[in-house]
Amino acid sequence: MTRPGDPGHAAASREEAATHDTAAHETATHETATATDAPRRRRFAWTLHRRLLVILAALLVAVSAVVGIASVALFHASSVERLDSSLRAASSRADDATGPGIPGDPGRTVIAFLSVPGQPEGTLGGIVIDGEVTAGVIDDGQIQSPAPGAADALADVPPDRAAHTIQAGQLGDYRALAAESQPGVKIVLALPMEGVNAQTTQLALTVAIVAVLGLMVALVIGSAVVRRALSPLAEVTATAQRVSELSLDRGDVALAERVPVDDDRTEVGRLGTAFNRMLGHVASALSAREQSEQKVRRFVADASHELRTPLASIRGYAELTRLHGGELPPDVMHAIGRIESESVRMTELVEDLLLLARLDEGRELAARPVDLGRVVVEAVGDAQAAGPDHDWEVRLPDAATVVAGDEPRLRQVVTNLLANARVHTPEGTSVVAMLERDGDDVVLAVEDDGPGIPPDLVGSLFERFARGDSSRSRRAGSTGLGLAIVRAVVEAHHGDVSVTSEPGATRFTVRLPVAGHPDTDAASADDSAPGSRRSQDDRAGEPGAEAAEEPSVAGR
C-alpha cells in the first residue's frame, strides 16, 4: 500500500476511486428504487381528518345496520303474527264448513271450506285422509288444483293447530295450520306469505336507501365540522412550517410567528398556547445567542484590529535588526528569523479573523463585473509557481464567466481552494481548476486526485479552525480558516460552496450568480447607492485585500 508522497500513489488512488464509483452506482440505483416506492406508500396517508371521518362512518353504518335490521325484523314478525291471526280465523271457518265425521267426497269438502265467505285470495286448503291429500287453491276467485308440490307440503304440516311456514312448490312460502277432525283425518289451511315478504323487502330497501343517504349527508356535514374543529391544528402546522423555513442558524432572527388561539380552555387551544410559549422561549434564546455572538464578533474584530499594529512593529524591528544588525551570532539570526516568520503567520491569522468578523457583521462587498476566468488563470499561475511538483490544469468555457462581486475577495476564494489542494495532497497530484456556465450561474470547480478527505471531516470542513487529522501532510502551517473564508465570501456573493470527496477524487464546487442575475443586480444597486460604495483605498485597508502567497486553509 502506497502512502501520500510515494511514487505511483496518485495512479493507485485513481484505480481505487474507479472501484468506489462502481459500488456507489449500485448503491445509488438501489436507493433510487427505494425512493420511488416511498411516495406510493405515503400516497394514502391516514390523516387525522380521514381517521375521524372513517370512525364516524363506521359508527353510523353500525348504528344504521342495527336499527335497520331490528326494524325490519320487528316489522316482519308483526306482519307474520297478523297473517297467523287471519290463518286461525280461516281455519275456524273451515272447521265449521267441514262438519264432523269422515268426508265421503274429500274434493267437495275442500271446495266447501274454501268457498266460505271471507277466505282470502291465494288460500291453500286440503284434507289428508290416511296420507292421501286432496287440495285446492283460490286463484282469481276460483277454486283450482294447486301447483305440483303444494299438496305434499300440506301433508307434512303437523296437526297441532300451530302456524308453520312451508314451501308450497311454485306457489312460494305459506303459513299453514293443521287440525285433526277425526282420527286419520287432517284438515290443513294455508295463507300465502307473498304480501308479507314483499312488504318486508320494501321496508328493508327503504331503510337501506335512507341509511345510505343519511350516511352521505352525515359525512359531508361531519367533514365540515371536523375540518373546522381541526383548523387550529392546521394553523399550528402552518406556523411550524413557516418557522422551519426561517434561517435560524445565524444572524438576528425575528421570530414573530404565532398561532391564533380562540379559546385556551380547549385541547387545541391549550396546544396553541403551549406552542406560542415555546416559540417565545426559542425567540428569547436566539436573541440571547445573537447578542453573545455580536459581543464575540466585536471582540474578535477589535482584538484583530489592535493586534495589527504591534505585529507590524515586531516584524519591522525583526527585519531591521536582520538587515542592519551587523555581524550577529548564528543562533541570534535564527531567532530573529523565527520571530519574523511567526509574526507573518500571526499577521495572516489576524487578517483572516478580521475579515471573517466583518463578513459576519454583514458588511456589503463591492459588486462590480469580475471576469472569473481571468482570476482563475492568474490564481493557477501563482499556485503553479508555489507548487511546481503538482500537475496544474485550467479548463475554461467558451461562454462568458463574468460575475458581479468584489474581485479581491473572489480572488482569495480561488487562491484558498488551490492552496488547499496544493498543501494537502502529495507531490504528483493532478489539480484541475474549471469554470462552466449552468443556467444563470457560474460554476467554479477545483478537482484533485489526491488521497481525499476523511469522511468524518467533510461535514465540518467549512467550519472555522477545522483541520485534518495529524496523519495528513503538514508541510505548511494552517490556521484552519481558509475554507471558512471561502464559504463566508461565497455566501456574501449570494452563492454556495460544497465538497465531495473519496480516495482519488475530491471536488470543491463554488456556484455564483452571473452578472445581471437579480441577486447581483440588487447587490450592485446597494453598492452604488449614496454612502454605501467604498473606494479602493477603503478596501485596501481591509485584511486579505491582496491574496497571500501562502494562504492558511483548512487541512484535508
Outline:
With 556 residues, this protein is of the alpha+beta class. Helix content is 54%, strand content 15%. The chain has a six-stranded antiparallel beta sheet with strand order 3-2-1-6-5-4.
List the SSEs and their pairings:
Blueprint (H helix, E strand, L loop, with lengths): L8 H34 L5 H51 L7 H9 L9 E6 L2 E8 L2 E3 L5 H6 L8 E4 L5 E10 L2 E8 L1 H51 L22 H58 L5 H31 L7 E4 H15 L4 E5 L6 E4 L1 H17 L6 E9 L2 E8 L6 H4 L23 H11 L3 E7 L2 E9 L4 H11 L7 H5 L16
Parallel strand pairs: 8-10
Antiparallel strand pairs: 1-2, 1-6, 2-3, 4-5, 5-6, 7-9, 10-11, 11-13, 12-13
Helix pairs in contact: 2-3, 2-5, 5-6, 6-7, 7-11, 8-9, 9-11
Structure notes:
With 556 residues, the chain is α+β, with helices and mostly antiparallel strands. The protein has three domains: 48-245, no CATH class; 247-363, Helix Hairpins, CATH 1.10.287; 365-540, Heat Shock Protein 90 (2-Layer Sandwich). It has 13 helices and 13 strands. Strands 3-2-1-6-5-4 form a six-stranded antiparallel sheet. Strands 8-10-11-13-12 form a five-stranded mixed sheet. The chain is rod-shaped, with a radius of gyration of 49 Å.
Uncertain segments are: 1-5, 469-476, 521-556
By DSSP, the count of extended strands is 13
Terminus-to-terminus distance:
20 Å
Helix and strand sequence: HHHEEEHEEEHHHEHEEHEEHHEEHH
Estimate the mean pLDDT confidence: 76
Sequence of strands across the biggest β-sheet:
3-2-1-6-5-4
What class, by secondary structure content? alpha+beta
Total number of domains: 3
Shape: rod-shaped
From the alpha carbons, calculate the radius of gyration and give it in angstroms: 49 Å
